[in-house]
Amino acid sequence: MIEKRDFYIDGKWVAPLEGREHQVINPSTEEPCTVISLGGPKDVDAAVAAAKAALPGWMATAPEERIALMEKLAEVYKSRTEDMAQAISTEMGAPIEMARSSQWGAGYSHLKNFIKAAKDFKFVKPLGDHAPNDRIIHEAVGVVAMITPWNWPMNQVMLKVGAAVAAGCTMVLKPSEESPLSAVIFAEMMDEAGFPAGVFNLVNGDGMTVGTALTGHEDVDMVSFTGSTRAGIAISKNAADTLKKVHLELGGKGANLVFADADDKAVKRGVLHMMNNTGQSCNAPSRMIVEASAYDQAVETAAEVANKVEVGPASEEGRHIGPVVNEAQWGKIQDLIQKGIDEGARLVAGGTGRPEHLNRGFYVKPTVFADVTSDMTIAREEIFGPVLAIMKFEDEDQAVEMANDTVYGLTNYVQSSDGARRNRLAAKLRSGMVEMNGESRGAGAPFGGMKRSGNGREGGVWGIEDFCEVKAVSGWS
Ligand code: NAD
């Protein structure tokens, strides 16, 4: 069991004012790994009051002062790689090697990018030569409520906190009740880095109590939310009465368009990308849509690759995939696999139940369906597990139509050796990101979605802008 910590408010660790205890279950073993406190509205009031009190002083600091603290945070974050990796691995099931590299690493690289972006960021800019006395000022939006999911905990926390501190905002973080351990370690790091009291506050809690209290709070100026589309809609409605700014990073159902002229690693790459983090990524390429002439070979290759993906406990070293996060998610994935079978898709790898060698823990077989059609549930719903749906297209227009036939619009993928085609498709795909031929986005590129995948952008300079109000000033001297 990991030692229990309570909330971090106004620069101190404090006991909850109300709420209840909650056992965090290790998904690899189904055993409790810690007990945390889930707070209530009184804890939210205390944390928001601390953030509000700290705001004027923090907003007035020079950007260089904030950058110096971010640099200190990067040092502290690096010094605690192993603690952080162990916490993430234990609470949400990422295999320890992957927790040390991608899970920990995503947070680190976002922070480094924010430091760079903050150094280049112009908080005061001229409007243009036609209006020499006008300035456009980027100013901190104020007190921000941050609500995060469990699947890439430090990725999401850092995308918000790194940008918000650079912008001069103060904040209250409510992490997922599935991943509180990494958030507690993160709060310890903020403390050690020396951020002034009240700039960063942490309250653990569930969505309906602490989440609702934060998103409807009079003194919260902005909500920055990452999570499901369902919760994003509820949050938008709750925030509407106070007309606060709401930034949403939501679900996805990415299409991976594989043309017959794609390179010979494209299918394998697509399957492994889908299985990464046990399929629990909002930008997972969960629909592989393949050109008819390459379809049979792609199905065969995808099944072979999926059958070789190893599944095992998160505590074991190695490049396997771990369990999914909890029992509810395991059950939901089982139902969706069964639905795929019932609705007539062809199961070519995996299926329902646990892998044979694992009878305890929330493990799912790496699963591939072929002959999936756009009307099937597994082509429409975000499964959030290691389940790939393969579909067929006849020509480029149909490929685009199928890719865009979803309520989501986060990331789409294209595999083709034809550069002109890739550029055409980049314009036609309705998603915030398009990644082609296995090239991932460069450092500091904006991350975010269209349609019901959300609004706004996180990361780099776009991330800092999102935590700013834009003020037009005339008569500047
Ligand atoms: P979730 O929506 O259930 O929970 C996310 C967070 O929201 C948690 O902290 C939860 O306590 C809180 N919450 C839930 N309901 C709330 C409410 N009504 N008011 C306030 N807070 C509430 O999502 P999850 O299961 O933790 O995460 C998986 C989802 O997150 C997937 O849909 C995934 O695609 C999405 N996601 C999106 C991105 C992105 O950047 N677009 C990144 C990662 C995950």
TrEMBL record:
Q: Name one GO molecular function term.
A: oxidoreductase activity
Q: Which residues form the Aldehyde dehydrogenase domain?
A: 13-473
Keyword Ribonucleoprotein recorded: no
**InterPro entries, A to Z:** Ald_DH/histidinol_DH, Ald_DH_C, Ald_DH_N, Aldehyde_DH_dom
Q: What general EC class does the enzyme of this chain belong to?
A: oxidoreductase
* Superkingdom of this protein's organism: Bacteria
Q: Which SUPFAM superfamilies match?
A: ALDH-like
What keywords are assigned to this protein? Oxidoreductase
- As recorded in UniProt, its EC number(s) are 1.2.1.83
Pfam families, sorted: Aldedh
For this protein, the record's PANTHER family field holds: ALDEHYDE DEHYDROGENASE, ALDEHYDE DEHYDROGENASE-RELATED
Question: Which family does the similarity line name?
Answer: Belongs to the aldehyde dehydrogenase family.
For this entry, the protein name equals 3-succinoylsemialdehyde-pyridine dehydrogenase
